[in-house]
């Protein structure tokens, strides 16, 4: 048992998915050829003036409200000065003393425990460009498509007390922002980035220990692993009589360790000052109220509602709310078919498997809630077995056809009721005495002909295996 406790605070940057950039009208889109979404403003050419994209402000307010934060009525942008080759102006337009939102919180669930993580601030800023090192010999190239991409930075209080809690916070934050629809929150595309601040202190000590800041983690898992590593490093430094120096470290996934990047700069190193090109302005309550009207139901209230209204298990409810599109789909299907457990089973089982193997979301496949309900109904009515139902689902998604069409075309419907099948079989036997004799004289392959006839007669609705069994038994008495 360690005599230290861990203190963690996270800074999460999210790219906002507005149509255009934060201060110019360039397209805000990932993955375009280098330097195609640029203009004099985002290239930082002299004589140009930034104009705030109103949608960015609205997204910021939305995020602030979802984080239970105070929205600042006074909006001001500041210059954060530093030099980097992909920062053409030599400063980043950010917010300093008047962030769009401050003093909020996010409730998370870590294991069985609920915990409130306080949000220090959320501010708007522009992203920098990108240095490309891979396809140039002995030099780096600058791609400015990303310069001026709108970002929101969300900073927690040092309230997280383990790497696992940090991991749970990130998942909750991501889901909340996905519900708002203001960011893709895709770490792989770089639309979500997380810096982790960590320190340790002897259990019981009030003052915080010296922190280090970790960068360059490319997944939530990596954030957790990097924190675990860094905590062990802090402990061993302190246990051996050393002292932690406040610095920024890069996490290396390959090496599984943190590497010193630079000693930590202080706020005054950035020489923050109000951007004279962007006049401060005030927003009144009606702007905030209008945004509040557009707020969707957030994941936590949806979870509670799914548990009570539909009486779903925690497992099913969590699985459904983990994807807002899935949750919507579920509710629409429920309107057609009021058996929540059945729908949830199909969604969390067969449907989810199809989505994963196709790497698609539920809106990207050819299945409507109604389509799924028809399929469930056919299984419940016993027209097809559960197993065949899953095959039908695959065919529906492969070819875009509806369940009934596929069941008919492929003759998948089974008449499993023996007496109904026997009526058909007896007719066929009566009509084909010669074939019956062949079977009796030891030529079982002739059975296939009778199965075919019976199948035809039943309009393709008989289960062929069952037919074969029943015909053989009827003729040979076996
Ligand atoms: P900086 O000026 O170095 O960026 P901030 O005060 O802005 O520091 O805090 C950045 C993040 O670091 C916040 O999430 C905050 O909660 C966290 N933090 C601050 N001090 C500590 C500490 N001693 N240990 C762990 N996290 C900390
Ligand atoms: Mg900071
Ligand atoms: Zn531009």
Q: Mean of residue pLDDT?
A: 93
Number of strands: 16
Hetero groups bound?
adenosine-5'-diphosphate, magnesium ion, zinc ion
Poorly predicted runs = none
Q: Count the helices. How many? A: 15
What would you call the shape? elongated
Describe the structure.
The protein is α+β, with helices and mostly antiparallel strands. It folds into 3 domains: 4-287, no CATH class; 297-410, no CATH class; 418-476, Orthogonal Bundle (Arc Repressor Mutant, subunit A), CATH 1.10.10. The protein is 40% helix and 19% strand. The chain has helices at residues 54-66, 163-180, 220-239, 285-293, 299-309, 314-321, 324-336, 340-358, 369-380, 386-399, 403-409, 418-431, 433-440, 447-457, 464-476, and strands at residues 4-15, 70-71, 74-75, 78-81, 91-94, 101-110, 113-126, 130-132, 141-143, 150-156, 192-202, 212-215, 247-252, 257-263, 273-274, 281-282. The strands form 4 sheets. Strands 2-6-7-10-1-11-12-13-14 form a 9-stranded mixed β-sheet. It has a 3-stranded antiparallel β-sheet with strand order 5-4-15, with no helix packed on it. The longest helix is centred in the middle third of the chain and has 20 residues, at 220-239. It is elongated, with a radius of gyration of 31 Å. The protein starts with a strand and ends with a helix.
Q: How do the helices and strands line up, and which of them pair or pack?
A:
Elements: E1 4-15, H1 54-66, E2 70-71, E3 74-75, E4 78-81, E5 91-94, E6 101-110, E7 113-126, E8 130-132, E9 141-143, E10 150-156, H2 163-180, E11 192-202, E12 212-215, H3 220-239, E13 247-252, E14 257-263, E15 273-274, E16 281-282, H4 285-293, H5 299-309, H6 314-321, H7 324-336, H8 340-358, H9 369-380, H10 386-399, H11 403-409, H12 418-431, H13 433-440, H14 447-457, H15 464-476
Parallel strand pairs: 12-13
Antiparallel strand pairs: 1-10, 1-11, 2-6, 3-16, 4-5, 4-15, 6-7, 7-10, 8-9, 11-12, 13-14
Helix pairs in contact: 1-4, 2-3, 5-6, 6-8, 7-8, 7-9, 9-10, 12-14, 12-15, 14-15
The structure holds adenosine-5'-diphosphate, magnesium ion (MG) and zinc ion.
């Amino acid at each position: 048992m360690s005599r230290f406790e861990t203190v963690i605070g996270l800074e999460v940057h999210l790219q906002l998915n507005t149509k255009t950039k934060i201060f110019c009208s360039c397209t805000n889109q990932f993955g375009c050829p280098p330097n195609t979404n640029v203009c004099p403003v985002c290239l930082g050419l002299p004589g140009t003036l930034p104009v705030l994209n109103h949608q960015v402000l609205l997204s910021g307010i939305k995020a602030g409200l979802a984080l239970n934060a105070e929205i600042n009525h006074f909006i001001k942008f500041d210059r954060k000065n530093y030099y980097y080759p992909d920062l053409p102006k030599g400063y980043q337009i950010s917010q300093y003393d008047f962030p769009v939102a401050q003093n909020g919180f996010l409730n998370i669930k870590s294991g069985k425990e609920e915990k409130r993580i306080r949000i220090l601030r959320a501010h708007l800023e522009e992203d920098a460009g990108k240095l490309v090192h891979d396809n140039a010999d002995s030099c780096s190239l600058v791609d400015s498509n990303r310069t001026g991409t709108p970002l929101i930075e969300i900073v927690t209080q040092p309230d997280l007390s383990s790497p696992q809690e940090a991991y749970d916070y990130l998942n909750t934050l991501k889901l909340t922002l996905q519900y708002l629809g203001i960011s893709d929150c895709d770490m792989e595309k770089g639309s979500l980035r997380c810096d982790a601040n960590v320190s340790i202190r002897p259990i019981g000590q009030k003052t915080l220990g010296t922190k280090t800041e970790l960068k360059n983690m490319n997944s939530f898992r990596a954030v957790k692993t990097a924190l675990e590593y860094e905590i062990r490093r802090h402990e061993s430094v302190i246990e051996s009589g050393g002292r932690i120096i406040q610095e920024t470290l890069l996490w290396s996934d390959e090496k599984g360790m943190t590497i010193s990047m630079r000693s930590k700069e202080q706020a005054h190193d950035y020489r923050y000052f109000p951007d004279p090109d962007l006049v401060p302005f005030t927003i009144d309550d009606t702007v905030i109220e209008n945004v509040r009207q557009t707020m969707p139901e957030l994941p936590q209230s949806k979870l509670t509602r799914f548990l009570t209204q539909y009486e779903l298990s925690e497992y099913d409810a969590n699985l459904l709310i983990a994807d807002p599109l899935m949750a919507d789909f579920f509710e629409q299907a429920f309107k057609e078919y009021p058996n929540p457990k059945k729908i949830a089973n199909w969604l969390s089982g067969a449907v989810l498997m199809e989505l994963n193997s196709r790497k698609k979301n539920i809106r990207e496949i050819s299945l409507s809630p109604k389509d799924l309900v028809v399929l469930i109904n056919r299984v419940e009515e016993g027209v097809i077995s559960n197993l065949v139902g899953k095959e039908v689902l695959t065919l529906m998604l492969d070819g875009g056809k509806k369940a009934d069409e596929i069941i008919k075309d492929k003759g998948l419907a089974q008449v499993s009721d023996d007496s109904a099948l026997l009526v058909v079989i007896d007719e066929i036997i009566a009509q084909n005495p010669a074939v019956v004799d062949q079977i009796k004289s030891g030529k079982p392959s002739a059975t296939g002909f009778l199965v075919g006839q019976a199948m035809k007669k039943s309009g393709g609705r008989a289960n062929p295996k069952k037919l074969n069994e029943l015909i053989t038994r009827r003729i040979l008495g076996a």
